[in-house]
Design brief:
The protein is mainly alpha-helical. The protein is built from six helices and four strands. The strands form two sheets. A two-stranded parallel ribbon has the order 1-4. A two-stranded antiparallel sheet has the order 2-3. The mean pLDDT is 75.
């Protein structure tokens, strides 16, 4: 990623209209909306049962987020509705086959993680947020 490019991602319209871009190599700029579409596809593969796809999407999202004010926050926030819709679809489709005992055991840790992430969002520097995301993903993979 070209760290010399800096964007103001506090305005969602800048991301949605393609004004925010991800630089590949030295010359190729890809609108960040295209990057997000690819990440949504990977997330969908993960929800569909392809191991590691969701984790890869989250890791790449934290790496590919453009540099600038609020960009990592926006990148992470844009992943939440995608994950939510995918989870709702899975629950509706496989409601009768769900292992509710396991789900209820995971809810407290999930709630704690969401609450902690909500409190940390906006208070960490971009580099510390990327480090935290990488650390959590590494812990998941171990």
């Amino acid at each position: 990623q070209d760290k010399t490019m800096s964007y103001d991602c506090t305005q969602f319209a800048d991301i949605a209209t393609g004004q925010v871009a991800y630089t590949l190599g030295s010359a190729l700029q890809v609108p960040y909306t295209y990057v997000l579409a690819g990440l949504a596809f990977l997330m969908g593969l993960g929800k569909g049962g392809v191991p590691g796809s969701s984790t890869t999407a989250v890791a790449f999202n934290s790496l590919a987020a453009p540099s600038g004010a609020g960009c990592l926050d926006s990148a992470v926030a844009l992943g939440v509705p995608i994950t939510f819709m995918a989870d709702c679809t899975v629950v509706l489709r496989y409601y009768k086959n769900a292992r509710w005992g396991i789900i209820f055991k995971l809810l407290p840790a999930t709630g704690f993680g969401v609450a902690l992430g909500t409190q940390l969002m906006g208070h960490l520097s971009e580099s510390n947020a990327r480090l935290l995301i990488g650390t959590v993903l590494f812990a998941i993979l171990m």
